[in-house]
Amino acid sequence: MAADLNSDLPSPFMPMKGSDDSIVCARHLLRAARRKFFTKPYDTVSMEEIATRAGLSEAKALGLFASKEELFASLVVQEMAAAAVEIWCRTIGSTDMEAVLLQVARNYVGLFGSNRATEIYRSLICVSARFPHLGRIIYEHGARVLLERLSAYIAARNAEGHLAVSDPDLAAQQFLSLVHGNLHLREVLAAQPVSDKEIDRVIESGVRLFLAGYRSDRRDASQAAQPGRLAREAGTCGSVKH
After folding, report:
1. Who's near 14: CB < 8 A, 6+ residues apart?
2. If we measure between CA atoms, which residue out of 122, 134, 19, 143 comes closest to residue 67?
3. Gap between the Cα atoms of 162 and 109, Å rounded
4. Where are the beta strands (DSSP E) in 26-123?
5. Looking at 110-124, 186-200, 221-235, which range is the least confident one?
6. CATH code for the structural domain at 20-71
7. In the predicted model, is pLDDT for residue 237 greater than 80?
8. Which string of b and e fits 185-211 if b means at least 16 CB within 10 Å?
9. Topology (CATH level 3) of domain 72-233
10. pTM of the model
11. Which of 79, 131, 144, 196 has the smallest number of Cβ neighbours within 10 A?
């Protein structure tokens, strides 16, 4: 069973021990919860409603997840953790640092700027005040995983002499901020529609600024700053559609 939300950084994933039936039921419950939590306000969704959708009794559902809050935490953590993995899996095998950073940026903005991510974020805002541990749990299993992978990548390129970075953790945070700008805020608030062209402009500019500041060879940095160069060199990389 997933841990209590009031404990210190629990791991709210679906049960991985027990009978095969319990694991299958937990998966059905999470699928049903996804349909409910991300399409309706959190307070209007009941555990009974989710269980019925999953073809289970409420008692069975509560035997797998102790509460609606616990089920919600498990669902969101899985979504965020999967997104963090997806961002990196599309860069496997590439040795071109610029292309990798550009692809990571596109994947990051594409996934976290998607309708699903916006729905998750809005749901979190609704419940975070009542369940302050929830945001920290999700950060540990989602955003932190992404930042750690990016920091490790930056540290490796630093060790190879391609970058001159004194604090890879800070550099990773700066990178994500540069390539994201205020796109997420605009998506969440629905203030303005964001075109694919504008998204590309923000991403490419962010990668150029990052490399201009952290490349060990500034001559390479001046070349990287040429408009369109990164897009041409990374043209063979796929991207996550916004």
Report:
1. 2, 23, 26, 27, 29, 30, 64, 65, 74, 78
2. 134
3. 25
4. none
5. 221-235
6. 1.10.10
7. no
8. eebeeeeeebeeeebbebbbbbbbbbb
9. Tetracycline Repressor; domain 2 (1.10.357)
10. 0.70
11. 196
